[in-house]
Structures are given as C-alpha cells and as structure tokens.
Amino acid sequence: MTGGEHVDVLIIGAGLSGVGAARHLQQAFPRRTYLVLEARDTIGGTWDLFRYPGVRSDSDMHTFGYRFRPWTRSKAIADGASILRYIRDTATEAGVDRHIRFGHRVVSAEWSSEQARWSVEALHDGEPVRFTCRFLYCCSGYYRYDAGHTPDFPGVERFGGTVVHPQHWPQDLDHTGRRVVVIGSGATAVTLVPAMAERAAHVTMLQRSPTYVMALPAEDALANTLRRLLGNRRAYPIVRWKNVVVTTLLYQLSRRRPRVVKSIVRKGLLRRLPPGYDVDTHFTPRYQPWDQRMCFVPDGDLFRAIRGGRASVVTDRITEFTPAGLRLESGAELDADIVVTATGLRLLPFGGVRLTVDGQEVRPPETMAYKGMMLSGVPNFAFTIGYTNGSWTLKADLVSEYVVRLLRHLDTRGHDWCVPCNDDPTVTPRPLIDFQAGYVLRSLGEFPQAGSRAPWRLGMSYAHDLITLRYRAVDDGTLRFARRSAAATAGRPSNGAGG
C-alpha cells in the first residue's frame, strides 16, 4: 500500500459541498494542510455526472450558490453547465483545485484515539493508497453515483427501442423526431419533458401519481435590478435573504395551511394549462404540499410544452413493456422509441465509506446524528446533508462554518479531538430525513438516526440552523473533548444511538 501522507483535514468529494468546504477551511486557516479526495476524474460531483437534456437546479442560484461567491448570471434557475462552471471557477480562483486528488475513491477510515487521527484508505487505479488526518469531513452527498433506481419492469427485454436512466445519459443518444416516454413525475422528469419536447416527435410523462408543480420566473427581476444599482457584492446577500424568506414562508404555509397552498398551486395550473385540462388527475397529488419536494419549472416550460401539444401527461401504472412501447393497467398502450426511467436515485450514506473507531465498526443506523452533521461516538468527523425544503448549499455553508469554529475551539483549548455523546435516555430516535419521497424511504434504514429534540434533530430551518451553527457555543455539554495523552486510557465513548 502506497501513501502515508498526513494532513490536518481530509475532505471526501470535490462537488458543490466539497469545494465549498475546502474554500471555507482555506480562508480560515491559510497555514493548515488539507486534501480533497475525489473518486471521479473531475470537479463538479452531481453537476458533472448528470448530462441529461435540460438538467438544471431546482433551487434558485442566489441560495444554491455559495455565501462567499455571488451568483452573477441573469438566470436564477440555472442550467447544469452553468452550475458546473460556477463550481469549477470557484475551485480555480481559490486554489482549491491544487489540493484535489482525482481518481481516489475512499473505501474505509479508521480512527485511533491513542493517536488522535484517522487512517484513510482510498483506491487509486485499483491500488490502495493510505492517508492520515486529524479531522475527516465527508462531502460526498447521499446517493450512489454508480447506479440510479430502476424498478423491475416486466417485459423490458422485449422492448425494441432504447431504455435509459438519466443518471447515465448516453451522449450520442439522438431523440430528434422520436417518440419518447419519460417514466416519473419528480424534478428530473419535469426537467426532461420540456427539454426533449423541443426536438422529439412527442414526449409523454408517464406517472403513477402526480407531484406538486409550480412555475417560477427563470430570472429574478429584483436580483438583476439590484445588481445594476448596487453591484454584485452588495446585491447578493439582499437577494439571498429575500429568497430564503420567501421559500421559508411557502414551506411554513404548506405545513400549517395546506389548503391555501393547494389552492394557489391549482390556480396557477389552470392559468397555464389548456382549457378543460384534467388538473385533478394529472397535477393534484394525494399527499400534502412539501411531504415531498415541490417541483418548480422555470417560466412554466413544462406547461408550455403541454399547451403546444409537444408533450402530454398520462397518469397510470405499467403492466409491461411491449416490443413497441408500454402497456398500462388501464389497457392503454404507449408507443415509444425511447423510454427514460426517471424513477429516482439510490441513496448511499457517506459515499459507502466503512468507518471504524478504535477497532469497532461503526454501523450508521446505530448512531445518532448530532446537529445533522456529526455522529454519536465518532470523533473528529463531520458530514454534509442539505435541506429537503430549500437549497442544499445553505446548509452546506453553515456546516463548513461550524467545522471551522470547531477546529478553532480545539486549537484554543488544546484539545486533540471531540465526539458527540448521547447520554440522555429521554432522547428517542427519529428518522434522519423526515421526507416521504420514495428514494428516501427505500434507503432510510441504512442511515443514522436523528433524535426527538436538539441537538440530535436534523433541522429544516435555515434561520434556526444559522443561529445554532454560527453563533451558539461549541461546547454545549453534548460534545466531549479530549487530549491525546488522556485518550489512550479514557476509553471510547459509546457509539450507539441511545448513548
């Protein structure tokens, strides 16, 4: 095994979260050493992986962008290529790109309390490489990169056309003049349908059940005006907070007055869809707003495609694939040349890295997440999970800021490591991600648990997390701190979710 290089902080993942984390650390600690290990051969993570037509953000870029680097383009709902360029430019301008080791897939990490360090194993060109670090920071997101979720469709082997999952889009796939069926109703499907409809003969969105879909302006008029008047730096925080407030109010109204939000969504649909369109069947979900993530379409492009006859929505279930397309439970058949299975993601906690603490394997479901970013019983370790009701980057920035505060606290007090300990028997376990989306429910049992109250609850309020992670004391009675000299004899705190 080669390697043995030691750094203060080792970051896993060079996507949106990893590049942001590296920049935060570098800005706060110019002399501290760090590396970013990236399994793929380029910067960008999700935004380099997904190449399907029309790929774009489902959050506005004034909140999806980094707090420290203003989004300056006119479109607030940006395409994937623009987001990828933004991430890469951030890495280049900050010099983060010089600290990235590409083609290094982290497979395991072992913590030693006696040495107060992590020993991390990665695979590079099939060969194991070893690194050690004082603090391990996982920014790998929470889904599998090697495969998306595709149900077992009966008869798919008989289909004479092309079946493709958006996560692995063939760059040579030409859908011009072809009949396309997109299976799904989430953010990926509502993005694909209008994009493919521009060149396809026709695109059908086939869904088992509807999703809440709202139209938003592709450009933020206030943001563009303020940039002209105030400049990028001054305008950015104003627009960012405006969008945080609007998103928060919509979410809170959805939870407290769901009928009001349903009425708002329905009125918007009736204005944008053809007269007499069956909104109840195709765009009225059975669940409440924000039980699952709401879909936003820039300038109502999905509705324009439907109104123009280039796209349609079918709400039904698949019985089987046929040589020419799909047979549905209703008896109807859909002819297709291309079928896109926009049927969701597969989740993977911590990028599949095996964690061990003092020789004992860490089983994520037996741990509890502290402030939604550390694990009970796992020292000097942090991870990033963004909001399900808002921009991922809002939380990623706050986690990075907290990690900086935590490292400063360790330095100031002369501690070598810290670990969250749940020794309160009244804290009861809860699902880490309180979200009803299918891709979450399928894999939730593989993830850490959350707790019934702070600091073990994964919050979904940016304002609350802002106060908690940026301003409240690091030493809150739940974190335990130790020096290396004492660590060897003190024993390891409990790894279990219950303490």
UniProtKB/TrEMBL annotation:
<dbReference type="Pfam" id="PF13450">
    <property type="entry name" value="NAD_binding_8"/>
</dbReference>
<dbReference type="InterPro" id="IPR051820">
    <property type="entry name" value="FAD-binding_MO"/>
</dbReference>
<keyword id="KW-0503">Monooxygenase</keyword>
<dbReference type="Pfam" id="PF00743">
    <property type="entry name" value="FMO-like"/>
</dbReference>
<dbReference type="InterPro" id="IPR020946">
    <property type="entry name" value="Flavin_mOase-like"/>
</dbReference>
<comment type="similarity">
    <text>Belongs to the FAD-binding monooxygenase family.</text>
</comment>
<protein>
    <submittedName>
        <fullName>NAD(P)/FAD-dependent oxidoreductase</fullName>
    </submittedName>
</protein>
<keyword id="KW-0274">FAD</keyword>
<keyword id="KW-0560">Oxidoreductase</keyword>
<dbReference type="InterPro" id="IPR036188">
    <property type="entry name" value="FAD/NAD-bd_sf"/>
</dbReference>
<keyword id="KW-0285">Flavoprotein</keyword>
